[in-house]
Each structure stands twice: as structure tokens, then as C-alpha cells.
Write a structure and sequence with these properties.
Elements (H helix, E strand, L loop, with lengths): L4 E6 L4 E6 H16 L4 E7 L7 E6 L5 E4 L10 H11 L5 E2 L16 E2 L3
Length: 118
């Protein structure tokens, strides 16, 4: 089954960072919660091999242009445990690393999601 791929558009130049709609929906929930409190934080993105590997750290702040574009027509149901995990990371010194959705196992949520460059 094919996943819908949306975009996080960042900065004045609107750099587009593609990611699965489900991941983007959870990240959006965290970003909006942080921005409502006027709290900036770091988002760490790891790129896949097809994109040349590497990573980037984005400083997300309510003062920086940011938009979310979803490919799918349905809003994904949100996983509260995943949002809480991402929120805890956003409140930490290293910021958010996009991790896979927890599934209740000890290792869940620990592997970092790699995405393609936009």
C-alpha cells in the first residue's frame, strides 16, 4: 500500500521537506503546540541514501514561515504516545529526531526515519 507523501515547507524560500502524511500530522501537532506557547525548538532530519545521505537541523520558531501540505484527503488518526514522545524530544536539548511510530515494544520509536531531500 502506497503512503501519501506531504511536505513541510520551511523558511522564506519555502524549502520543501517531503514526509509521509502520518508522520507530518504528528509533527504538525507538536509544532503547533510548541508555537502556541511561543517555544522554538530544533528539528533534526536524516536523509536517505538515494538523497545522498546526511542530515540537517532546522531551527523552528513561531517567527519563521512554515506550512504543512498533505497529499491525502483524510486526516490520519493521531497516536497520543507518539505525540508525547516527540513533544518530550522537542523539550530536550537535542530537539526532535523523527522516529518511527511506537507500537508498544521496548524498541519502538527509537529508529530514526530517513526521508528524501525535497
Amino acid at each position: 500500500m502506497r503512503s501519501d507523501v506531504g511536505y513541510l515547507a520551511y523558511g522564506a524560500g519555502q524549502e520543501r521537506i517531503p514526509m509521509d502524511d502520518r508522520v507530518l500530522a504528528h509533527l504538525r501537532a507538536v509544532i503547533l503546540a510548541k508555537f502556541r506557547r511561543k517555544e522554538p525548538f530544533a528539528l533534526n532530519v536524516e536523509y536517505d541514501r538515494q538523497s545522498g545521505s546526511g542530515y540537517a537541523t532546522l531551527w523552528l520558531s513561531p517567527t519563521i514561515d512554515l506550512s504543512f501540505s498533505f497529499e491525502g484527503s483524510r486526516r490520519p488518526a493521531l497516536n497520543r504516545a507518539w505525540i508525547e514522545e516527540l513533544m518530550q524530544a522537542a523539550n530536550g536539548p537535542d530537539g526532535v529526531h523523527l522516529t518511527h511510530e511506537p507500537d508498544g515494544t521496548e524498541r519502538a520509536g527509537r529508529d530514526v526515519i530517513q526521508i528524501q531531500r525535497g
